């Protein structure tokens, strides 16, 4: 492992020298990016995750100098995946930067994917409010890209956490929305009963007998799958 770290340090040192050198156009950033990429790989082999993460951030900055936004975003994602093993906070920060870049270049499906990943990290930290916020953002982006299955998975997470913090009406509306959308999809309509059951349980938690009765009647008439 020590040998891998040593090689990583050598590549990092050479990359820094390249950045401090003088050259025409942007070639020094291209050369440095290649060296940083090699350095990061060796630090990963050495399981030196913090060092690998920091190198990927440097790699991202090289790509930004070259105006290669997509490559910079991917480097931030790589940094985040290294930091996941040591620092959730740093991982979230890198993923957020990647999301912003993917949004800038119109890669909304990629933005959705990493909003979901941020939400999962907040969930692992029991930060329910931030998890809800980022699952909602992921759902919106997936929906805009017509990736309904992924959007519904994120919405279900929002509903689950909303019920957990006693925001029952919000959870009910989400479950009903998913059920309604699923009715028109042959692959999803068989899950409608489960969504309505969850909505009904939330109605019970609210304790409003009239609302429960009205909801049950409405589910039977409007939402129950044929």
Automatic annotation (TrEMBL):
Cellular compartment(s): Membrane
Keyword Protein transport among UniProt keywords: yes
The UniProt record lists the keyword Repressor: no
Ranges in a coiled coil: 118-178
One Pfam short name: SNAP
Primary location recorded for the protein, binned into one broad class: membrane
Membrane topology annotation: Peripheral membrane protein
SUPFAM superfamilies xrefs: TPR-like
GO molecular function: soluble NSF attachment protein activity; syntaxin binding
Family: Belongs to the SNAP family.
Official protein name in the record: Uncharacterized protein
Organism: Gossypium raimondii
